Every structure is written in C-alpha cells, then in structure tokens.
Amino acid sequence: MEKHEExxxxxxxxxxxxxxEAAGENLTAPGRGLAFDDLVEAHLAVTYSDFVAIDKTxxxxxxxxxxxxxxxxxxxxxxxxVWWQDQDTREIHPRFDNLQDWVAFNEAVEDxxxxxxxxxxYWAEHPExxxxxGPGPSTADLxxxxxxxxxxxxRSKKGRNDEDTKYTEELMSDAVDFYYGQWPSAQDVEESLxxxxxLLVQDPHLAVYWLLHTSVLAMDEQRAxxxxxxxxxxxxxxxxxxxxxxxxxxxxxxxxxxxxxxxxRRAVLLTRLTILAPEEDRPAIxxxxxxISSATRPxxxxxxxxxxxxxxxxxDAEVTAAVARMDASAGVSALRxxxxxxxxxxxxxxxxxxxxxxxxxxxxxxxxxxxxxEVRTGIHDADxxxxxxxxLFTRDPYKRQVLLLARQAQELAGRVVFAPDGEWEHRIxxxxxxxPVMQELLQTVRDGEDSTVAAERVSDPELADVVARRVLHRLxxxxxxxxxxxxxxxxVLAGTGAGRIEAAAIGLEALPIEAQRDVLGRLxxxxxxxxxxxxxxLLKVLVSEPSxxxxxxxxxxxxxAALGALSPIAAEPELFDQLLRLAxxxxxxxxxxxxxxxLFDPSEPETCILPRLSDAQATRVARAMVAVQxxxxxxxCRAHVGHTLxxxxxxxxxxxxxxxxxxxxxxxxxxxxxxxxxxxQVEKVVAxxxxxxxxxxTPRCRSALIERLFSERRExxxxxxxxxxxxxxxxxRETLEALRERRDGVAAGHYAYALATFVKxxxxxxxxLAELVQWDVPADExxxxxxxxxxxxxxxxxxxxxSNDLVRSGHALAQRIAERPQEPCEDPRxxxxxxxxxxxxxxxxxxxxxxxxAAEA
Length: 857
Known about the structure:
By secondary structure, the chain is an all-alpha fold. The chain contains 44 helices and four strands. A four-stranded antiparallel beta sheet has the order 1-2-3-4.
C-alpha cells in the first residue's frame, strides 16, 4: 500500500498522492508511532486539546499543516476547499477554494511576497460562495459537533495525574459547554439523528460521530439504530468498521485504555447532562451513571434516585437490579440501606457503612444531607452519625432535620455529644421558627434582590442570632448578597453566643471577592480599636486555609481585603505583633502575598502603614521580608516579597538594611561563578536591598552606599544603579573625599562605572579624572585595570569639555599601565569592554589632536 493510501485509511478519505505531497503535517509520518492497524487507538492517540484532535481527523478534513496551534485543513469530504482553524476559539474559517490555490499561495510566500497582501487580494477575487444546505452537516459543522467529544476524549497532558478529580471536572465542564452549544435539548438530538440515519451508509464521518455520541452517552436504543443504518460490514470503510466494533461493544463498565479515567469522565458527563432529559427519565440515567462509576458524584445520583422512587418513576426492583451491577462505594451503601428500609429491614449495616465514608468526598453537602436523612431509620452507629452531623453543622447549624439527626446520634450514644438533653426542644423550635424567615430571604435572592427586610422584622434577639448564623453558614450555598451578609455578621457579633467569630469568618470566606470587599468596606467603618469583635473575625480570615475549590488568587484577595480593613489600626503594637508573627517562616503564602501588598507597599498609600511604624517595628518588617525572600518554600511568594522589599523606604530600619546588604553581598561574592538556585536567590535579595537602602535618603544610607564602592565584589550593576538613584552634589563630594583619602583603584573604577552607566553626566567624570591624575598607579593588577578604566571614562568626558591639559595628564598616567582597562561588570578574565579611545572614530581622532597639541593650534 502506498503511503497516501495508508493515510487515506486513517482519515477514511480518498487521499491522493498530490494531497499527501502538498501536506506539511507530520501526524501520519513514520516515527509518529500511530497504530494504523487499530484505527480507534490511532485517532484517540492524537486527541490533545492543543494538538490535532478528532474534530479534524474524524470530520472529513485532511490536515495539511499547522503553525503553532493553528491548523490548515482540506475538506476532502465536502467541496475540496481549504480551511483554517483557530485553536483558541476552535472556529474554522474558509481560506482557499482548492488545494492548488493554497499551494500557489505558499510558493508565493516562499518567494518573498507579503502574506497578508496575498490573502487580501485572493479573498477579494474569490468571495466566499453562498452555503448550500445539504442533507447532512457540512464538514465544518461536523467538526464543530465533534468539539464536545474532543474534550471528553482528550488525552491528559504529560505529568498530569489521571486520578486528578478536579482536572476531570474541568475537562467535562468544557465538554458540557460545547455539547449545550450544539444540542440545547434531547429533542434536538432525536430529530437530527432521525433525519441523518439514512445518510450514514454513504457518510462514514457522520456515522462515526453518531457511533461515538450514542455510545459515550449510553444511548443503547439509539446506538442500535445507528449500527443498523451502517449497512452490512462488507460495504463499510475500515474506519467505520473499527468504530462500529469498538462502540458497539462499549458497555456501562467499559474502559478505554488510552484514558485511565474514562469511566469517571463518562459518569461526570452523563450526570451533568441529565438536566436535558425529561424529569421522569433522570433517575434511570442516575442509575446508569452509578453503574459506570459508582464513586463519581454518588450522592447527587442517590438523591436523584430517591426522588425517582418517591415519584414512582422507577421501582425498588429496578434499583435493586442496578445496584447489583455497581462497584462498592459510599453511594451504593446508601442505596442498599435505603432499599433495606423500604423493604422493612431495619437491622442491616448498609446505612452505617454509608455513614462511615460519607464525608470523605467533595460533593455538595445538600446531597449528603438528603442521603443521610433517607437512611436515618437504619442507622445504628452513634459515632458515625455524630461525625456526619458534626460536618453538617459546619454547613447549617440550625437546620431542623440536622438537629433531629444530632439528637438521634446522642440517643444512640447514650451520652451528651452535642448538647444537654433538655436543650433539644428549644433548639429545634428555634430552627423551625427560622424557616419562614430563611425562605423569604432565599426568595429575595431568587428575585435578584439583596434585602434584609425579612430578617429585620425578627424582634427576638435569639431567633435573629439563629437566622444570622444560618445565613453565614449557607452563604456559599444560597448566594446571599453583601447587604444580607453585613446584617448577619453585625447581628452575630452583637451577641455573646459561642462560635460567633468563627461564624462571621465563615460567611466572609464564602462570599465572591467583590462582595467581600463590599462587606468589609461597610464593616471596617465600625472598627474603633483592637478590641472591636470584627478584629478577631478578620484575624480568623487571615489564618484560614484555602478550601479545595478555592484558587490561591481568590484567597489572597480576601486576605488583602481583610488587611485593608485592619490597616487603620494595624500599627497598634498588639495587632502589629500578631500580624508579624503570622509572617514568620514558613508563613502561609496567601497571607504573605496579601500582607506585603496591603500594609507595607508604599505604592498603596491608602493601606500602607509604614509611615506610622516605629523604628523597631520597621526593622522587624524588614527582617521578616528578607527572611521570607531568602528561605520561603514558595518561589512565587519569595518573588512577591522581593517586589515589596525593593520599594521599602522606612528610615528606622536603615541600620538593619545596611548590615543585611553587607552580609548578603559577601555571600554572593563568595558563591561560585556557576551559582545554584540558592545563590540566585541571594542575588535577588542583594538587588532588593540595594534598592531599599537607596530609597532611604538619609546621610547614613548615602554613606553606606558610597562605602559599597570600596567593598562590592560582584553585584556591580545594582551598586551603580543605587549610586545613580541617590546621586547629587553631596554624594559626589563625599565620594571624592573618600577616594582622595583611601586612593583605592577598584573603588575609583566602580565610581567611574556608576557615573558612566547610570549618572550619565560629564562634569562629575571630569572631577573624578582631576582627582585620579594626582594618584600613583596601583601596585596590583585588578586595581590597576579598574583604575585605568576610570581614567579612560574621565578622559572621554574631559575631551568633550575641552579640558585638554587634564586629557594629556590622564592619558600619560593610563599609558603607564600595560593591561587593558576593565569595566567592573566584566568577567575578570574577559575583555568584552573596549577602550573607546583605542578604536577608529571621532573620539580617537580628537584624542590624537589633543595629544599632539593640534587642538590648540
């Protein structure tokens, strides 16, 4: 078989030698490792979200080439046009009328013609023809249909853990979005399938689509209709037969070797698409989902099955038969316990088995409550029930049914677990009294309002406290707005009940970030000192850990908002001490990001507390920042605190900063030239310390930076930049005085480097040369080479200033040094920097005229 014929088998298309010759893709090239004897595996092997994927290889397109992640494809199934796909949007756009035009375009581009101009001219001469609707979808439309299957079947990226449930949920979220875009309802699927079944025998790519669609979604009846419509096996293309064999045998417990998490994906997808089905069909779908993967969203499916049994849409016998085909899991134990109860068997252990593993998942707590409530009469394990109730209390401490479960756990245990026996009736009565208020508040949310009218009508302080606590615990579930949340926090904090600080913090953490800022803005105006109860709430927020569904960025923003609310009193010694103790290593990264950004960044004047800190407090902050940048385990946290240290400017910390700069400069100077990551981190600390010291414009810091000219041995760029930042007449005068006193050739070179690279003014260079011509040539090589560099810099400035006598004196001194001048930033063994006076050009000619005396003639 010729190569193009083999490629044609892969695509299910009549690929000609001309097409294969024109194509620049390497998808089917030797060495790709595609198993052409297993066409299903071959197509799944290239299904990556950012690579080729089956939306192109199974829709009737032939891949011609790709540039980055964008593909040019030939519509072999349809009219032979050339199309282009944008991988960001997945949209496919027509480019050329045929393969020959595309080839000619590429040849013109290779000859040097402008690509954009060629396209513009071509499109003007070849307008897109009107689309003529055919009996089936166009190739481009079919490719769009495949999008949801791309995301469902996409291969995990290298290094991705196939057991990563969150990753699976993300992929299926994309698959569901594309599915809804193509199939808004189950009726749309039925109508399209019915209309297209007669076309499948002549349209292999449409046939493969419906095989995958009906098999993945466990549509057994529809799959049988598709298989019947394909015609006898003898007339099927190898591609169609391969997928017919594969899909025709895909059972509910079937796996795909290329996708280790296939069953989990399938169960998630089916569960999320259940909403498209008629309500009476959903319990049966839930049972299929649990047969596919009983550990995937089990409690949501259990709740749906319970609803089906209650409504009479499914029978106990059907559930029993389905359960027998499910793998063991918490959800299956719940179903077995439910069936026991419905059969009048209350002595079994299935309900207890369910409870013992019920809170290990990450499903919505509402599904958990529903399952526990349904099996409550079959529960005998007091400790297991108590553990579940304790979890449910964290979601709603005054839900009446949860209180009843808590009392049941206590009765089973025969001891006080949650509350004295005499308190239960009162608690349950309060919970019942809160129900109409909660229902009215929830109705305002559904109406798009953020109103506390219902809550404010409650005159009983104890009932108001119960309502407020329920609101705060249910914020993430019910979606109350900032106004309701503010009322709830204020109400809870006004009381004296246990757990009020924790309840307020839970509510804040559950709000969307914009609502958090809104609520904190309202509440912060009431903070009048560190004894205000809201302070403890905000401190609780600052030490909170991100939940499994939270991004680090969201948590940082919440903590930044909390710190912003605390900023008016954050310099108070007691509160400041608490905050800085939280910053001690290792320190929570989300807190540290927020801390440095909010309280100690001079570019945030509304919340920055640096101007209000004592010298001791400022020094403590500086020490903490340096410690975090040197040794915090989070790379991003180290980088972020470095940005704040770079802008630090409190003079009270100057002695520590100067000392730290000296220490870390020595550490960096002693590191190997091929330094490791730890040395790189020291280099970054040095850079930020130089900046911090230069930000503090005091005589002490000025003298310290001038001293660095004499002691710096490696970080010359930062040294020079710092001198450039603080440069003025006093710096220049003090530096020349120090050089005159110590006559250090290395320091002279460093100062010349700072003047040449950062100050960029000629008069100071001339002054430096006037000082240096009075020196003797240094005895050692490195000082001589740096000294010569300083002379050359000064000579260049003196030439521009027409200080000819000074030029001649400087040149004569430089000529006494045989070695090349060395700029400080050079490697000591290298000669990258060149003396400009030694090169042909204006400077050399001007120097020659001065040296010869012709300049004065």
